[in-house]
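W.,

You were right to be curious about this one. When I first looked at the sequence I had no strong expectations either way, so I just let the prediction run and decided to look at it fresh. Below is the sequence, 311 residues in total, followed by the output.
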Amino acid sequence: MRAFSAAPTFKIWFFLTHCAILLLILPPHLIAQDDLPGEEIPVYKFGVTSWQHGQTVDKIRGLYRPMLEWLGNEVGAEFVIVGSRGYSQITEMLANESIHLASISPTPFILAQIRNPDVRMLVTELSPSLDGDNHSPFYEGYLVKHADRDDIDSLDAMEGLRLGMVKKPESTSGYIYPAMYFGDRGIEYSEHFERVYFLGSHPRVTDAIVAGSIDVGVTWDFNLKQAIKKHGDKFEIFSVIGTIPNLGIATNSSLPQEMADRIQVALLEIDHELLEGIPSSGFVIGDDEFYDEVRRAIENSMPIGNIFRSE
């Protein structure tokens, strides 16, 4: 019969006692969160919307998943993707704090901020220029025509023609900035053009230019690059209608400030390979004044009392 020894039991007791003492005397920031018993990983809802027609919710989830999985590991959290049907819904979800964060374009961001002053932008995306040579927190909106339409050589020549826009009131480059562009030149677009079509998406605008169902249309640089890949060199930029802040990641008061700070720091260091498929090559911080031109465009293009009425 083997004799029982108390030595292993004593060693275990000695080890656990010293661990307890270390937990009491070490500063909290030196204790790994994974080592604390019963510590739950916080879960945050990350809202996304389709910025190109034809993208399914599953497609959007796939594009953002690598970034959010990496971010979760960096900040010690889990991010659940919440899809929205469009700009109006992402604005509503961010403003009423049913989500913690959102990838959001400038106009919905400002509209959400009007509804809820606690809405703020954490980071703004960097994106390549149309020629791919530069990376900027801005993108360009364009007034575009078919390359064969030599007769369209001025704004006056557009009088009585057909204009394609995207959606009002929420589309920044597809409505807000074009309306300001025409207004700054003394043109009431709804009277200047024979017909104005709101086609619902940027690809539909460029498709319509190629098909000849509209004469001129408004779009943004990312979609124009995609349209050239699809249709070939059939487009001509008539004018730049605005230099517009990129998509950004915004939050509200439902996200703890400490976590917001950690997310912001992490995203500034993200590897651009994790952003493949998203029109972004990284992130920067833009202060609130960064969006003042968007605010001016919104004020000029719609009555403030009607900014939440979808048309």
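Here's what jumped out at me. Residues 1-16, 19-36, 304-311 have pLDDT under 50 and may be disordered. And, maybe more interesting for your project: The first helix runs from residue 7 to 25.

Coffee later to discuss?

I.
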